[in-house]
Specification:
It is a single chain. Among the domains are: about 90 residues, Sporulation related repeat (Alpha-Beta Plaits); about 90 residues, no CATH class. It has twelve helices and 34 strands. α5 packs across α6. With about 575 residues, it is α+β, with helices and mostly antiparallel strands. A hairpin with a 2-residue loop joins β15 and β16. The strands form nine sheets. An eight-stranded mixed sheet has the order 1-5-4-18-21-22-2-23. Strands 3, 6, 15, 16, 17, 19 and 20 form a seven-stranded antiparallel sheet that branches.
Amino acid sequence: MLSPIGLGLSLMIHCGRNASRAMKPIFFFGNRVHMKADKTGTGPMARHTAWFNALVIGILLCVTPGVYGQTSPITPEQSRARIRYAVLKDKATFRASREMIIRSGKSRYRVDAGEWTFEVSVTRPATQRYHVFPKTFRPGEEQAREEYLSFWRARGYHPEIEEFGLLFQTAPGTLLDNREYWVSLSRFDTEQEAEALAAELKKESVWAWTRPERTAGGQGTFAIQGQGRRSSDLLECPLEISCEAPLEVVDVSSGFWREKKENRLFQGPLTLSIGPAGEIEIYGYLPVETYLRGVVPAEMPSSWPAEALKAQAVVARSEIYASLAGKYRLEGFDFTALESCRAYLGLSGHTAETDAVITATAGMALVHNNRYIKTVFSSCCGGWTENNENVWSGPADPMLRGVPDCSIGPEDITPASGLKRFLSSTPDAWCSSDTPGFRWQRRYSVGELSQLVNQKHRVGTIQSIREGGRGVSGRLKSVTIKGSLGTVTLEKELAIRQAFGGLPSAMVIIEQEPEAGVPGSFTIKGGGRGHGVGMCQHGARGMAAAGRGFEEIMAHYFPGARLERMQP
C-alpha cells in the first residue's frame, strides 16, 4: 500500500499526464454543441486547470491526514479543512460568470458561463457503518487505555481504537498534540442497531455515542441542463467543477434547522458526490485562514466592536485547529457549513471589518497543556456561563468552566429559589445591556404545552413537570414530564429545549398554575440564548464596548488558557 505521500505524488504525476488528454465537448439533445473545447485539449486553460487540480490533490494527500493517517506533524499554516458546503436532494444549480471545467474520471469538459443544473441519477448511494464509542483517551494515557480495552474484551467485545485530531508543529521544537483515541466498542450496519447498544450501555451507567463511518462512495451519473438545453452525455460521479471565478450555488441550506435557503458563493474547485441517502453532497478544501473569512461574519455581526470581532476570530481559529480530523473524519470531511457545526457563508459573507480582524489576529489561538483548546461559544449566557459536562455528555473540560459574567454577587443560583430571584433581576452583566433574549418568558396552556411535548415524546396530556439537577449557571440538567400516557425524563439542555418547542436556553424556571387540582397553565421564565458554554458573544460585545481588549475577553471566558500567535 502506498504511503500518503507516495499516493499524493503518484496522483500528481497521473493527473498531470492527463492534462494532455482531449478536452471533451458536451453534447445536447437537438444540438451538437462543442463548448469551447480545444481540438487538442492542450490549450492553456486545460493544461493549467489539470495541473492545478493535480497539485491540489497531491498536496492534500501529502500534508492533510484525513482518512489516510498522519505521518508527521504539520504546521498551522499547512492545515486545510475539507468542508461539506451543502447537501441537496437531487439537483444542484450553479451560476458561473466564467466558463466551467468539469472533471469526471479521466475526462474533462468545458461549459460556457451561465446557469447550469446538475441532476443526479443514483445507481447506488454511499454506504456507512456505525460505531459505538463509550470513551476517549489522550496521548500519555496508554496504560489506562489498555486496561479499559481489557475490561471490554473480558465481557466478550472486540474493541478497536480510532485516532482523531492532529499533531501540530509550531515554533521550532514546539509540538501541540490534539490527537484523541476513541474506543470503538462495536460496529453495525444500521444506525438503529448502534443506538440500541448505546441505550443498553446507558442502563449500566455507561454513556456512549454513535458516529457513522463512510465505507464506500455513492455511484451514479449527472445530466447537465441549462441555456434551454439538456446534455445527452451522462457524467460519472464524482464530479469536480473548477472556474477562474467564484461559483454561486443556488438554494443552500443554512441555519441550525436547515430551514433557510440562500445562494452562496464558493471558490472552486468543488466536488459533487452522492451521499448515503442518494443526495448530492458538495465539498471544498480551504486553508484555515481563508475558511475563517466566511466563518467569523456568519457567527458575529461585522458591525460589532473590533475587539469583540477579534475575540470571535481567535475563538473560531482555536476550535478549528482543535477539531481538524475530528468527529467527522470517518465520514471523509472536517466540518459542515451549518450552525450545528460552524456557520460558514462562503465568499458571500466576507466583509472588510471581519477580514481586517482575521488578519490582525493571524495565527493567534488558545492553548492549554500543549493542545489547542476547543473554544465554544453561545449567543447570550444570561449572566452566567456553564460547565461543559452539564450541557453535553462527556468529561469535564478545565477550559470550559462556568463563570459569572462580570460582578454578579456571591449568591448561589443553582437552587430554584436562587435562580428565580436571579431571573427576576437585571444584574450588572456584560451581556445584559441591550441584549434581546437576556430575559424572556413563555406562557402555555396545558393543551398547548402537551401538544409541543408530544411531537417528540408520547406522554399524553401533561400532569406534572419535575425539574432535576442544575448546573452552575442554573441551567437544567434534567427534567421529568409526567403525562396521561406515560412519563419521560429528558437529560441535557438541547433535549430539554427541543421538547418544549425550542426554548432559547435551559436556564429556566417552570411554574405550574393549577386549575381544579390539575395544571391549567405553565409559565417558563428564562435567561440567555444558547447553551451558555465558553464565550458569551453578547458578553464579549459588552466588554469591548467598555474598552476591554480581546485578550481580556479571552482571559475572562477561558481562564487558564494561553493565547499564542503561531509563527510559520
